[in-house]
Specification:
Blueprint lengths: L1 E16 L4 E14 L2 E8 L8 H9 L12 H11 L3 H18 L5 H4 L7 E2 L1 E4 L4 H10 L5 E5 L4 H14 L4 E4 L7 H13 L5 E2 L9 H8 L4 E3 L6 H7 L5 E4 L1 H4 L2 H13 L3 E4 L6 H8 L7 E2 L12 E2 L2 E3 L2 E3 L9 E2 L1
Parallel strand pairs: 5-6, 6-7, 7-8, 8-9, 9-10, 10-11, 11-12
Antiparallel strand pairs: 1-2, 2-3, 4-15, 13-16, 14-15
Helix pairs in contact: 2-3, 5-6, 7-8
The chain binds magnesium ion.
């Protein structure tokens, strides 16, 4: 088996702003694992809040030697080898995708059937609206028109929050969840905002405060009228064990946990603590979004829209029809390089 990889810069169609930063693109790595002319694809995406940097992940990939593996029948031994070299999670997510893509193709099976026993039905996904002025919000709402629900990025400014939610609700009847991306620094302000949001019919809030205030989430969870999902605070299965008591739900993402195989383990662990499950994504292309969509049936909420803002995507894969994800039934992940 041979590994090839390349750094690539994805460009967004508009500035994407959250409480912590504003970006016009994102760094990724695309990789390919090849056996006898058959190719599995994977993608690693890098987001500012994770300590993982692309340069370190490239060095990790450089250190790997897959020539000793002649097939993908024994995935566990290949994963063990990867883990023995190092633990760079986005690169591991990309490798896990490529291995599963290859395994599916070699067994003439869609990867989703490794994890999910239900039929291939369309899965509703939310559409994410970044932070911006009235014109930006209204442009985004036009793009979101056919989606069954919205995820609205918020900061800690009550004026912005109340204005933006009122603006959106004046133009849309779609159910709304909000994501603070750790933006609020005080539990009393957080609760005041959550109560106001609840009164407006907002369904849930994601990561209101930063992870370093994790112990304040205990009080916030007990008093919040709406469910609170952990995202930045819960990246791996160990985080679920250590921090499940602070949240009603968890946002699981392939880049945080190291791929579909680890995400699948996190689903079972999160259910054992009665956590609600959201499947999320970073800013990433169709390759990683399609990979994640193979697990979508197992989640209560799905937020897989990170690819919709890319202007230079190198892949095709999962389709979106009226805000529902449609996976092909082709063998592998369902990803095709353009
Ligand atoms: Mg989030």
């Amino acid at each position: 088996m041979h590994l090839k990889y390349d750094a690539y810069d994805l460009k967004f169609d508009e500035v994407f702003a959250v409480s912590a930063n504003a970006r016009t693109g994102t760094e990724v790595i695309y990789l390919e694992l090849e056996i006898n002319g058959m190719v599995g694809y994977g993608e690693a995406s890098f987001t500012p809040y994770m300590k993982e940097k692309r340069a370190d992940n490239l060095i990790f990939l450089e250190a790997l030697d897959f020539t000793k593996f002649k097939d993908v029948d024994d995935l566990a031994s290949i994963q063990n080898y990867i883990n023995s070299v190092s633990n760079y999670l986005p690169a591991k997510a990309a490798l896990d995708m490529a291995l599963l893509d290859l395994k599916g193709k070699m067994n003439n099976t869609a990867v989703r059937s490794f994890f999910v026993k239900s039929p291939n039905k369309p899965i509703p996904t939310s559409f994410t609206i970044g932070i911006g002025d009235n014109y930006f919000i209204l442009r985004q709402l036009t793009k979101a028109y056919h989606f069954p629900s919205l995820k609205v990025k918020l900061n800690s400014d009550p004026l912005y929050i109340k204005h933006t939610i009122a603006l959106i609700q004046a133009h849309s009847k779609q159910p709304i969840g909000v994501d603070f991306n750790q933006g609020i620094q005080d539990k009393y302000l957080a609760l005041e905002l959550l109560i106001w949001l609840s009164e407006q019919g907002i369904e849930y809030a994601e990561q209101p405060m930063p992870d370093h205030l994790i112990h304040q989430f205990d009080w916030l969870k007990q008093n919040s009228p709406i469910p609170i999902y952990g995202d930045e605070s819960i990246q791996t299965i160990e985080d679920i064990d250590n921090k499940h008591q602070f949240f009603h739900g968890v946002n699981i993402k392939l880049m945080k946990c190291g791929g579909l195989s680890n995400a699948f383990k996190m689903i079972e662990r999160a259910r054992s603590y009665n956590l609600k499950l959201m499947l999320g994504c970073m800013a990433e292309s169709v390759c990683a979004i399609t990979a994640a969509a193979n697990l979508a049936d197992l989640f209560d909420k799905v937020d897989l829209d990170g690819h919709l803002m890319m202007t230079n995507d190198l892949f095709t894969g999962v389709a979106i029809d009226n805000g529902h994800l449609i996976l092909s039934s082709n063998p592998g992940l369902g990803v095709v390089k353009k």
